Amino acid sequence: MAVVLLTGYSWEDKLEEALIAGVDEVISKLLFKDNLIHSIQTILLRREKPAEEKNDPDQSDLDIQSNHMLKCRRILVVKDMFSDHPMGYYDAILMDVRMPVMNGLDATRAIRELERADAGEIPIIAMTANAFDEDVQISLQAGMDAHLSKPVEPELLYETLDRLIQHK
To answer: All domains of the chain, ordered by start, with CATH?
Structure first.
């Protein structure tokens, strides 16, 4: 399992402390798909054992095909700039449910209420530590298309994005 700290603040002065505490990667918002994929690949490469040390040939890190599934896709990690771009610009939104100014549930409702054709269709995926069934239902009722609990497993994230974007 990888621990990725997604933050809207600068952690440069505390990066070493975070790494010692077990954080694998610190990523700053606004985060785009390419940055997320690069961070995940960096973590996996850092953890990968040399080929001669691998014992289980069936055990593999993140499937490289996942990168191909999402190639040329734009994934917005926050809601702030959705309405600032033309229709169809983003392929999906990863929505943090607990954001400081407007929570992800309200942000999702606001996006769904925009008078744009893509506002009702863009896949919005909740990313939250809230993992109870009632939390999933609340996310779906707010207009989200899926709910991923943190820490998010990269393969599940890729599968969810691929499924929702292809279905769109």
So the answer is: 4-46+67-167 (3.40.50.2300)
